[in-house]
Specification:
Strand order of the largest sheet: 3-2-4-5-7-6-12
Low-confidence stretches: none
Mean pLDDT: 96
Number of strands: 14
Largest sheet: 7 strands, mixed
Oligomer: single chain
Length: about 325
Amino acid sequence: MAVKTYIAAITEALDLALERDENVLVFGEDVGENGGVFRATEGLNAKYGKDRVFNTPLAESAIGGMAIGLTTEDFRPVMEIQFFGFIFEVMDSIAAQMARNRFRFSATKQFPIVVRSPYGGGTHTPEMHADNLEGLMAQTPGLRVVMPSNPADAKGLLLAAIESNDPVIYLENLKLYRSVKAEVPEGYYTTPLDKAAVAREGSDITIVSYGGMVGNCLKAAENLEKEGISVEVIDLRTVSPIDVETIGKSVEKTGRVVVAQEAQRQAGIASSIMAEISERFILSLKAPIGRVSAPDSVYPFSMAENDWLPQVDDVVAKVKEIVEYD
């Protein structure tokens, strides 16, 4: 297997999808000749032409509306929102149209739309370029929300998202784009949606996380192992719907849980996981469920983001607190 960056794996997935199915279209602001603001679509316009990989006006609401319209002609749109903080401009198309249309049309029509967008902090971007808004998407029935943590999953999950006949919000961690390299299987393959992965096995405590925070959790687990604490790390991969079965098996095995997210404490995913564990597996718990998150404030200016974002040491401290609970 070749070693690729997170963003190279995404580009390869788009290339393979365009090659496999002539109804796949890729569009958004600057994704054409320029290859996108982060070069995720570099070379695809030249290879597949301006009718299949093309720029749109600076108008997120128009991008979303066009994606919905294209599905009525059997296309499979892959639309890009340049930064996820701009998602509010297209929320009507996503939450009021895409998410509801299968129900609205009594499942007689398909809406195979992928909404790609970078999210997350740690790269000193300006305001509204780093927000973790996955909670807004996850509380909208009718949408899948996918957040890969490594290059192999980034490729396999994107191909699975493009194959899906329902709308998928596919969120790419901005910091991971070129900071992470790993082996990626060759050729076309899919990674199942809605299925979490056991990223590291352990026996003393479970950490449940997703997206960019998974790397911090794995580093925390390595550090804790040196102190004699065996940590199992669950990578959700899809945050809506949540794979409660995989989480439950781990909770029944370890009896102690920490949930870690980059988003603010009130922003959704961790709260949902804690509620599911409390409702279904409370008799397996030996301690309260711990939580690591950003504070409940708006995303800070870049000079303060390293103080604001949850770090490896924060995960280590919370795990020790839960392990030592008696």
